[in-house]
Amino acid sequence: MHELSLMGDVLDIVQRDAASRGYKHITKVILLVGTLSNALPDALEMAFLMFRSGGDTMLTELAELLIEVEEAQAVCVLCGLEYVPERAVAVCPDCGIPSGRLTKGEAFRVLSYEGS
């Protein structure tokens, strides 16, 4: 489950930034996770709960994780059709050629966090 490692990295980044701003506690973390990012939201939630209950972080007992899912989108470089791809190698449903360029869906980033 690489989501545990991803969440550890996310919390490390958030905690370093929060500490530089004088925060002692983090109450909320908001992530943007694309459907083609290779990160599963349910597994990220479980990893967050493990870190929250571990006591080694700035997370409060009631800290929450909000995940905004970014749906995948692609555009065919040949015909210009915009469509929802099923995989990163996007086959245009109109041309039938793997000429799709992903425009959304691979994101994995911290949008914001809250704390005090």
Structure characterization notes:
With 116 residues, the chain is α+β, with helices and mostly antiparallel strands. Helix content is 28%, strand content 34%. The protein contains two helices and six strands. It is elongated and about 55 Å long. The two termini are 31 Å apart. The mean pLDDT is 93.
pLDDT average, as an integer?
93
Largest pleated sheet: 3 strands, mixed
**Order of strands in the sheet with the most strands?**
2-1-6
Instruction: Please provide the ordered H/E string of secondary-structure elements.
Output: HEHEEEEE
- Helical amount: 25-40%
Question: Which outline best applies?
Answer: elongated
Count of helical stretches:
2
Strand content is 25-35%
What structural category do the secondary elements indicate? Answer: alpha+beta
Number of strands: 6
Instruction: Give the uncertain stretches in residue-range form.
Output: none
Rg, please?
18 Å
Could you give the distance between the termini? 31 Å
